[in-house]
Amino acid sequence: MHSSIVAMPTSYVDLHEAAFSGDIRTLEKLIGANGMCPNKPDHAGRTSLHHACMNGWLECVKYLIDNGASVIATDVSGCTPLHCAASNGYVETVKCLINKGNASVSVRSKKGHTPRYMAKSRYQTKVVAFFNEIENKMGGTPWLQN
């Protein structure tokens, strides 16, 4: 008789994969039970929050922010999790990063691009509309124009 053994996720690669795939249970195990830091970057400088934001995993994003994930962490190109969510069109994730995580809408990548610019360049109209609402509430602040 053969018994199968399932390996328990234990590495930062597992943490990043869980965030990328929206696996909230694995995130809870690795961060909550195992005490892993959500801000440990991968080879490209992306944290678990970057990975969750790339795919719009809202519950994972909320969990990560609640457990110390940095909304200002930058990858090797200077992009924050807000850049990732905005460029991929995840408006609810964008709202969460700003409202729950207090992410800055004016942050710029190393190329000088704001999250609004990244959304606009990828035709993410719902995200651009949300940034336009913010801009209008702030009286047409020019730093959103990039």
Commentary on this structure:
The chain is 49% helix and 0% strand. With 146 residues, it is mainly α. The N and C termini lie far apart (64 Å). The protein has helices at 12-21, 24-33, 48-54, 58-66, 81-87, 91-99, 115-121, 125-137.
Describe the protein's topology.
Blueprint: H1 12-21, H2 24-33, H3 48-54, H4 58-66, H5 81-87, H6 91-99, H7 115-121, H8 125-137
Keywords: ANK repeat, Repeat
InterPro entries: Ankyrin_rpt, Ankyrin_rpt-contain_sf
Question: Could you provide a short overview of the structure?
Answer:
With 146 residues, the chain is an all-alpha fold.
Which features would summarize this protein structure in a list?
repeat; 146 residues; elongated; ANK repeat; mainly alpha; single chain; 0% strand; disordered N terminus; Ankyrin_rpt; 49% helix; Serine Threonine Protein Phosphatase 5, Tetratricopeptide repeat
Specify the biggest β-sheet.
none
Low-confidence stretches: 1-8
Helix content: 40-55%
> Do you know the CATH architecture?
Alpha Horseshoe
CATH fold assignment: Serine Threonine Protein Phosphatase 5, Tetratricopeptide repeat
Q: What kind of assembly state do the chains in view correspond to? A: single chain
Number of domains in the coordinates?
1
How much is the radius of gyration in Å?
Answer: 16 Å
CATH class: Mainly Alpha
Pfam families: Ank_2
Keywords: ANK repeat, Repeat
InterPro entries: Ankyrin_rpt, Ankyrin_rpt-contain_sf
